[in-house]
Amino acid sequence: MDNKMGIDVIEDTGEKINRRRKIPVRTKLLFSSGAFQEATIVAAGLVTVLFYNQVLGVSPALCGTAFLIASVIDGITDPLVGAYSDRFRSRWGKRRHPLMLASALPVGIAFYFLYQPIEGLSEMGYFIWLSIFLVLMRIAITFYNIPHDALGAELTDDYTERTSVFGYNLVAVALTSTMMSLIVFFVIFPSTPEYANGLLNESRYFILASLGAVTVVVSILVCTIGTMDQIPYIHNVDISEKVDYGKFFKELGMLMRNSSYISTCLSLLTIYAALGILGVVSTYAYIYVYGLSTEQMTLAGVMKLPGMLAALPLLALMSRWIDKKQILMVTAAISGVFSALPHVLKMFDWFPGNESSFLLVALFLPLFLGALVTPVTSIIIDSQLVDVADVHEYQTGSRAEGIVFSVRSFAIKATSGVGGLLAGFGLEYIGFPENAEVGNLSTETINGLLFMNGPLYLMLYLLAISFMMFYKIDKKRHAEILSELETRREVAALIKRDEENPGKPASLLRDSGKASIGPAEGS
């Protein structure tokens, strides 16, 4: 394919492509196979701050600073890589796949050394080590995540089918995250007579580093190689010129003026930051507030399984009655309230004691209820970003999935990045001690942990819901935009053929191709 306007024609055969095609289940599964990479990073992220803080002796503030450094660099590299991915081309394939393939080994190497630092370093030495390999791993992940997400956005223009593509991916991420969490807590860090909670056993982090490194490399390779047959079906863009970062900043500026894009970005970042905070401080709370073993902590992952399996059917049912915006607001409210509830009740002493046989039920039943709809929230946000990419093409005439989806890559890393930053400084603020012992924490420190797990988490979810109120794309408006885009692409294809074959005029369609229904209102 070779055109400036996104022509749906294969360049060698001239075969037209149905942009509203249904995606084969095999392709959806291979696209989702990269979930093992994301799940491994997420599962390991649950113990990163704990490892460097409680095992290696780095203060929570320094841990938070390392995540701050990584997040600042993410904020710069993610959109730049997004723009590069939109225009990159190599001899092995257009745009997305070469970058995904090149990321595999760097991600694996950086992951290994992040959890296997040199022994005997000072606190500052471990801080520097954490900062360096966290940054390197996050940059390497950027070269996979952004092209991967942009590829998913390009597979189809169908309003419902694109939700299914990202639904498969989200369910795969959720399922593999639970599986990897079970492996982390049961296999890698089991409780022992010496370590009541195995996460404090330094010798086991070699297994995490080795197993995780192999998993992320294999996952990226399977996804990349398995989806190469989709290269002919991605959008046509003009990639004959080098990446123009002047144009990139102009397009980014247009996106920043799109209320629907800003609304989606802010909601996405807020939700993922909340999840990131919870990923760190929930581990501290389970150990030091509720006194759970690593085996008991796996229930947090098990409670999420029904929601993962019900996500696609539930989404299909909800989509019959309400639009994407309303689905997100409803599911986010349910997730936020039920996930925060046990910790709020604990703060007011309306919760079973640690010796109670009802403790695990009271702690994890609300999590189960909230997790029933949590995957739907993530699927909807991904689908909204693809709709925004269509609006951007409608306004500018160019595709920019890489730029649009750079915010998702940043948000995924914000789960550990911004979450680790806020959690690290939060732990420092509440005075969480080094070498803490279960049962010996002050009431103020315990309440501080509960506040971050409960009220703070809920407030961030409510903030995300308020941001979504500014989202303006609905199914009807998107159908109008897509219809106009299809007309433009068809006309541009005919004009190009006319230029290449003067004897087969398509000039009568030139004027009609200039018609437009105006700027994307309500975008």
Main sheet, how many strands, which sense, barrel? Answer: 2 strands, antiparallel
* Largest sheet: spatial strand order: 1-2
Beta-strand residue fraction: under 5%
Roughly how many Å apart are the termini? 29 Å
What does this structure look like?
The chain has 21 helices and 2 strands. The chain starts with 24 loop residues before the first helix and ends in a 10-residue tail after the last helix. Helix 1 (25-32) runs antiparallel to helix 7 (205-226), helix 13 runs antiparallel to helix 14 (359-371) and helix 18 packs parallel to helix 19 (455-468). The protein is an all-alpha fold and 523 residues long. 70% of the residues lie in helices and 1% in strands. The longest helix is centred in the first third of the chain and has 32 residues, at 123-154. The protein has helices spanning 25-32, 35-55, 60-87, 96-114, 123-154, 161-188, 205-226, 245-256, 259-288, 294-297, 299-302, 305-319, 324-347, 359-371, 374-396, 401-414, 417-429, 443-453, 455-468, 475-500, 510-513, and strands at residues 89-90, 93-94.
Q: What structural keywords apply?
A:
523 residues; 21 helices; 70% helix
What is this entry, summarized?
The protein is an all-alpha fold.
Question: What topology does this entry show?
Answer:
Elements: H1 25-32, H2 35-55, H3 60-87, E1 89-90, E2 93-94, H4 96-114, H5 123-154, H6 161-188, H7 205-226, H8 245-256, H9 259-288, H10 294-297, H11 299-302, H12 305-319, H13 324-347, H14 359-371, H15 374-396, H16 401-414, H17 417-429, H18 443-453, H19 455-468, H20 475-500, H21 510-513
Antiparallel strand pairs: 1-2
Helix pairs in contact: 1-6, 1-7, 2-6, 2-7, 2-9, 3-5, 3-16, 3-17, 4-5, 4-7, 5-16, 6-12, 6-15, 9-15, 9-16, 9-17, 9-18, 9-19, 13-14, 13-15, 13-18, 13-19, 15-16, 15-20, 18-19
